[in-house]
Amino acid sequence: MSTYADPYASSRETTEGTVFSVTGGDWDSLVTEIGQAKEERVVVNMGPQHPSTHGVLRLVLELEGETVTEVRCGIGYLHTGIEKNIEFRNWTQATTFVTRMDYLAPLFNEAAYCLGVEKLLGITGDVPEKADVIRVMMMEFNRISSHMVALGTGALELGALSPMIFCFREREKVLDIFEFISGLRMNMAYIRPGGVAQDLPAGTVEKVLATVKDLRQSFKDNEKLLVGNSIWMKRTEGIGYLDLAGATTLGVTGPVIRATGLPLDLRKIQPYSGYENYKFDVVTADTCDVYGRFLIRINELEQSLRIIEQCAQKLKSLEGAPVMVADKKIAWPAQLAIGADGMGNSLNHIREIMGTSMESLIHHFKLVTEGFRVPAGQVYSAVESPRGELGAHVVSDGGTRPYRVHFREPSFNNLQSTSAMCEGSMVADIIGAVASIDPVMGGVDR
Amino acid sequence: MSDEQHGMFGAAGTGDTSGYGGLVRATASAGSSQRPFGGYFDQVADDLERAYPDFADAIERVVVDRGELTLHIKRERLVEVALILRDKLKFEMSMGVSGVHYPEDSNRELHAVYHLLSVTNNQRIRLEVSVPDVDPHIPSLVEVWAGSNWNERETFDMFGIIFDGHPGLTRILMPDDWQGHPQRKDYALGGIGVEYKGAVTPPPSDRRSYK
Amino acid sequence: MASRRPRVGLEEKLPSGIVLTSVEKLAGYMRKNSLWPATFGLACCAIEMMAAGAGRYDLARFGMEVFRASPRQADLMIVAGRVSNKMAPVLRQIYDQMAAPKWVIAMGACASSGGMFNNYAIVQGVDHVVPVDIYLPGCPPRPEMLMDAILKLHDQIYDEKLGPNREKVIKEVEAAAMAAVPTHQLKGLLA
Q1: Counting beta carbons within 10 angstroms of the beta carbon of residue B96, is it exposed (0 to 12), middle (13 to 18) or buried (19 or more)?
Q2: What integer pLDDT is reported at residue A143 of this predicted model?
Q3: Which of C87, C120, C185 to mutate to test the interface with B (most CBs of B within 10 A)?
Q4: How many angstroms separate the most distant Cα atoms in chain C?
């Protein structure tokens, strides 16, 4: 076919045997060469660039025909060294780094980190109620947007092309809310240690309630696409089986372990940010398979909408309440406002610090450049992200920079179960199983 | 971690004339805690003593700080304690290993921190093992909680802690032939200065910033 | 895109003069109107790229909704996200496997310059690995910004010359680059 030797499509001998690289259009040559080989074992590499592996995940499969005998994950293709980067930034700046780990659930990363910092500072009880309510509302919206991507891309990978478009349409509605409240669609760095970055703009509650009504109707319509669809069920029932014993020993949390029947949800058993004040159910299934996890994600959307409605009701009575902790030594000094060139420090604040009060200027300067000091110690704070338990192990040495922050990422731990789920099944089932784990490679590799 | 912080600024040799470079601050972290610990920690400690008679031998230190219980364990006893915690005290799930590098803690530089969750009793506990740089071996907990597999690989990759008994201890996040362990404190951040129109902004590790 | 002469294709059979200009315009028009992107979404920017391909910000109106998984069938590689040192050889391999003509958009701050991650793990700008045609800043850039970058690339493709005209353009660009002031000798407003 090609008139010159492709440097990437060839075969070579290694200590493990012959390695073939297939780049497309040369399947025949591969099959003839394999036919001549003595061994039956075929090891296939999927990824890291692959349309169906949910990001830069590399799967190395050992095949016997269509059956998978061994599957191993190769990760690390998105390793960014965020945890080490944070050690050179102050406690508030670290929020902007941490938000980009699990990029589909940025607010959860921020929440886990900020809850950890607040625990170290000892101000967990001083975070104002409005800040807590806003955090819960934004996190639940983020859960909806994350599940939309999970459901859309999962369906896309298994061949159902329409749900992707519908799910992204609903996601856009949620991103509109994010943009309205925080200014950005993704990676907002909105939750800061001590509260949230800025207060809600006027008209938020109405917009939220209208969106909830809209989404509820859309979710009903979208469900009809796949729930009960016999082709979908044939592709997902009984696939990717992982029972409770397996899930527990592998440290798997989130929809995967809830699909085994265990109602493990940190929002209920170890509530944070006021989750104990909201009425919602923990969604479980008992089929331990891909279809069960799919149903859990669909039903969690409705539970999130319930929580958001309760938040909106609470916000109606919290007009004008503070959203940042009262301690001026920790709270971010400036209020933000939209100016002629975008969002920045409000002009009133600038007028004050530059014109009237030297002390305010010093205070602002020290807080922004040096940051606050956090007493030495270590904590572990965990939140229930859409993928499972997202924990932050925050270690402080008493300074203005984090000493060590390690994130216990649910995607990292859940992805280990791929081998347990997929060995013995067919190649096509691996895609479904990985999609049901819903790994986000930014979180896996950090 | 040392009890004192010297200096106010991070990167040294950056022409600091303020005098704050000579500042010495006391930053002690919580030391060993005495009974009663409070909350469910006493019950956990009692159950552990009952199930594991050599408890006092294996535990170097118990720290209760900010509502969390940390048991500092000797590395030789780690697997025994883990098995007892899993089977008798019902800490079914391990949340993974987190490595921390304290270069000033001579002979105990590398710490491996394990967070355990008991779903039955809704309790959390932390185990901490300290090993010296010259001999960074810790027994592997893959036999106790299978999910420790990748976490231990990551801690090896980032800190160089070698987990004895691990079925396949290789690099997981960095490329396979990478030299060095990136998240150690003696490994440089590795940024490059950004040059623009004659001015250079140094990478964050070299800037004159506060500690 | 630069100097390696392809062996088959339009460039072999070029006329000259005015007819060449018409061929250039026609080829440019055809190439830009159905540019097929290769799936190279890495991190957060990939999600915004998917949003750009979804219903609200529709890339299908440019003929670009088919994200080809196989680089052999793709014309445009949108590097969306941070490229780690482990991923860089894979990036180069995918780029090499694409057939000419091919273009690269570095989407996002991390792909353009390493972004906020100035450290051991991230390649400081994907132009260390592949030649980039359009740099798109943002963290992540909105889907509208991505579409703007694509439209600018469309204009660039439309104006691409073929054959002897292209060699002339390449020589001119190289001469201009050799005569230009190097970046480290540029002076800003403070100098």
Answers
A1: buried
A2: 95
A3: C120
A4: 53
